[in-house]
Amino acid sequence: MKKIAFLLGSLNRGGTETLLLDVFRNAKKNELVAIGVYRKSGVLEPEFIESGVCMFKLVFRKNLISYLFQLRKLLKMNKIKVVHAQQPIDALYAWLAVMGTGIKIILTLHGYDFNNNKFGNIILSFIIQRTNQNIYVSASQKDYYQHKFKLKPNKQQVVYNGISFEKFDFSITPNSIQNYNLREELKLSSDKLLLGTVGNFVPVRDQMTICRFLKRLHDKKVHFHFVFIGKRDEKNSYLFDDCVNFCEQNGLSKDVSFLGSRSDIPAILNQLDAFLYSTDHDTFGIAVVEAMVVGIPVFVNDWGVTKEITEDGKYATLYKTKDDGDLLQHFFLFLQEKMFYQNKAKAGASFVRTKFSIEKHIEHLKRVYSSR
What is the CA radius of gyration of the chain? Predict the structure, then answer.
């Protein structure tokens, strides 16, 4: 088996980092031989170090040449055959570092380029044409990039993200997780609907549509409490602040909690009555799949990839993008026909466990590696 080097930026909590941490924890039993190389620390650093994959921290300072020589030396010393970058900038660094070595470069595009600055777009347009293989996390994302950059079809591959389901199987998790009670933490009565969403407040997402929906729900006198799980992004702080201000100005503060970044998401999801999600341009939607895993009703807008991962709404309820009124109509149907939606959710849980397991993800990655 070829030895793979995964290149990461920081080790803060996010969708890409969560995915890679699950890959690393499951690498050995799935016969994936790998190392991890990262440039910046983060809250997940201890977990990555304990994952079972050997981690190397190479700090990039002002001297690019020095960093490239260090990276080249590290890759050759570890007899790396394939470098798998998670960002275009790391793919570019790798491309420069491995010249003449025969080491192959693979890049996974985890997002779209909608919010790139000019420098980011230059790097992307340069490196996407020079990698040995590009991986996309959904077919709709692959189609977008292939069309925009006129890429060779044989160098483009879809590999769906994978979920490690062990953390959702509460029979094997610690008692402290099993016994955790979100209602007790928030001091909620048992008769309140407990709803929530997961996702950092970044331009990819659209939490404001959910806020507008919550106002409609409040105006209809529905007895609920909603939790937003996700951190405030300092670069786009207005996205979080606007949601908080909207809730305060519309009398929702007692019905809405902003819980920030959490490490106990599986336990929280397991206690929700329903999960709501709104995206502007997610490429996969790990949070949606994780909510489906626990078997709760999921409501998500009809963006291309959400239709893809829910089988066009077969396993979750789709509503019109940015249409909080349409979401409200679907939600009231849920309140009236809970058994139907709960059965749909159970079928969704079985579907995602079959299609989006971490084992299947690693299996597909290994196929890509072997083809290079």
Answer: 21
Sketch out the chain's domains with CATH numbers.
4-162+357-371 (3.40.50.2000), 166-355 (3.40.50.2000)
User: Do the beta carbons of residue 129 and residue 91 sit within 8 Å?
Assistant: no
Distances (CA, A) of 189 to 172, 186, 255: 28, 9, 12
Residue 259 CA: distances (Å) to CA of 227, 229, 309 = 7, 5, 27
Rounded CA-CA distance 319/367 in Å is 36
Per-residue exposure over 126-146, b if at least 16 CB sit within 10 Å of its own CB, e if not: ebbeebbbbbbbbebbbebbb
Chain segment 57-77, per-residue pLDDT in tens: 999 888 899 999 999 999 999
Q: What is the mean pLDDT of the chain?
A: 94
Dihedral in degrees, nearest 10, Cα atoms 331, 182, 16, 296: -40
Contact 5, 83 (CB under 8 A): yes
206-219: pLDDT as tens digits: 999 999 999 999 99
Tokens of 112: 């779209």
Q: Token digits for 309? A: 């991962």
Q: What is the pLDDT of residues 73-118, one digit of tens each?
A: 999 999 999 999 999 999 999 999 999 999 999 999 999 998 889 9
8 closest CA partner among 101, 100, 71? 71
Beta partners for 83?
5, 105
How far is the C-alpha of 236 from the C-alpha of 258, rounded, in Å? 16
Q: What is the dihedral of CA 216, 222, 224, 227, to 10 degrees?
A: -10
Closest among 312, 317, 311, 275 to 293, alpha carbons compared: 275
- Give which of 83, 325, 119, 136 is closest to 219, Cα–Cα: 325
d(CA 183, CA 181): 6
pLDDT > 70 in the chain, percent: 97
Residues of the chain with pLDDT > 90, as a percent, come to 90
Cβ atoms 37, 61 nearer than 8 A: no
Residue 185 contacts residue 218 (beta carbons within 8 Å): no
